[in-house]
Write a structure and sequence with these properties.
This protein folds into two domains: 177 residues, no CATH class; 169 residues, no CATH class. It contains 14 helices and ten strands. Strand 6 and strand 7 form a beta hairpin. The protein starts with a helix and ends with a helix.
Length: 399
Amino acid sequence: MDVVELFRTATMAIRTNKTRSFLTALGIIIGVGSVILLVSIGTGLQSFVTKEFESLGSNVLYISPGRVSFTGGPPQNVEAKFDFDDVRRIGEMGSPITDASGMISRGVTVKYRNKSFYGSIAGVNEKYMDYGNVKIGKGRFFNKNAVERSQMVVVIGHKVYKELFGLGREAIGKEIDIAGIQVTVIGVLEEKGGGFGGAADDNSYVLMPVTAAMKVTGIKKPAAVMVRTESPEATALAAKKIKDYFYRKDLTDDDFTVMEPKELLSSINSFLGVITGALSGIAAISLVVGGIGIANIMFVSVTERTREIGLRKAVGATYKDILTQFLLEAILLSVLGGFIGILIGSGLSLLMKNFIETAVTPGSVMLSFGISCAVGVISGLAPALRAAKLDPIVALRWE
């Protein structure tokens, strides 16, 4: 039997039992589709994080209270052992540091008339627009004078604006209630979308002068500090100067963390890569189940077609012909399932792109397809060997 004839015979056997063939390949379809979808979500998240860091600039350092680690351990929520005077002194250190900006943050319910919205109040200074990767859509941002005088003014995120006022309505100049205090809206941020989860945090921010936010929230110490340097190459020297400053204040490495953008981005991407790999591994269990299903059905097929095998051998089919025929059937089932799984996984990924950032990579498609082919070979080998070893005389007597 030539290859074309073997392929035609295998295809006919699959078409003869369409429902059984589909159910057999279902495990492969689910496994491949799940792997494609989960890898696309993980890749999209990594891409989003990278874009955010690039937009903030590679010459920005981040200072966080306590020890921050992405290698494990419970998350920390500690009060800073440094204050805004320290932030000011760091900003005045001179070369290679150009300026520093501290912020406080707390969840808060914002009210306007009979409407309310739970968002995040962020106390920042006038330099936040340079760090925060946000743009004003309406109105203006507050200036240095507003920070120095603790003016009760706010710039609200697009989601806050939509929930409190409604699209198309005027918000500038209106007063909203935050913790029982009336503050005036002077600006609305542009909607920030296309990120992971639609960049909900940015859209839900209520930005106000840090000095005013201290009065509203009662928080006196920064939750985070961003430090700008003269160039990306200067971040290491700036980090050393900041650490030396804190060491002179008798702070230890457990009291603060200075993170360089490359180091932070690498740590986050490594962490996300581990999560993506673990989730993909769990999804890949479906491929193992699918392989077992294919092997089981192929054994049943060999038993059902014992007389057919005997007849083929009697008219000249060789050991290799029978082995190739049944192995080809298993591979076709697996490849068909893999192809459908790729289409479904890619389709779901495109659908989810409306809500979160996803990215189907050629590597994940090739890997999934390759695994599905391998599953077909492995799961079909034992049944094919059994069929090829059948004695033609015994097979012809099979009832």
